[in-house]
Amino acid sequence: MSSSNKSSIALTSFLLMGFPGADAAKNYISLALCLVYLLSIMGNGSIVLIIRMDNNLKEPMYLLLSMLAATDLSLALSTLPTVLSVFWFDYRRIQIYACFTQLSCIQTLCTTESAILVAMAFDRYVAICNPLRYNSILHPIISKIGLVAVIRGVLLMLPTTVLLNRLPYCGNDALSHAFCYNPDVMKLACADTTINNKYGLAVVLSTYPLDLLFILLSYVMILKTLKSRARQAEILKGLNTCVSHLCVVLLFYIPLIGLTLAHRYGQNDSPLILVMMGGVFLVIPPALNPIVYSMKTTQIRKSILIQLVRGKQNYSNQAAPA
To answer: How far apart are CA 40 and CA 79, in angstroms?
Structure first.
């Protein structure tokens, strides 16, 4: 078969590359990824369960934290099957529609998480600037915030999948990552992707920069309020309640911006750099977020300890002879 005929054959699957050129360290990478995924699933799953079970954690702050943990848990689970299949079983093929489903889930969850981070910034603003009305302002709208965040993610990302589905794919079938990512898939299309690029850029510019702007404005108002207070202890206490959220914001947006810029402008960079940035973006933040909040939030730590003690007591009671 000639090369011209070969390149015109429509693809039905893509090849997931993983870490090209790192075969010697494959076992170590597999083990590290397994541990990080385990940490992410256990950490976020524990936070969701603890906030659900503990009646003392029904304040808006903790409900928003459970939404963040549920989103991170879903994000980890959306990439777990393909990433582990590549590194554990060396199975690199993914069907084209499964790929579209995965990238749609990843982008929807990322957009949802960005909206939740904005809501958490607003939560900190109300808690510090208007503490007496904190519950009365946020409690009635907390479930609506979560619903709007999910709906926004779905509505913005559904056209992305539709636009990808209309494109023919032929010739090169190798993706840069061990998961499907929209800009990565678009490179394999053998047709004009101008509409895809313009819509993708419009979505990026209308979500993440605006979300970051709202977060920044919230913290400007918080600093302005804290500055008007005379006591230094109050200022430090107010800032301390924001540390966890600021760490999570940095963990989410820095890798996201880096990966987006690398795919758009780093065409000549090493493929391994793109792979590493993709791994950092999708694996590290969901694993570290529960640790950040557990370390900085006293109520979460207390609830975890209480549940551990109760679990140990129940086990002892069941193990004791009748």
So the answer is: 12
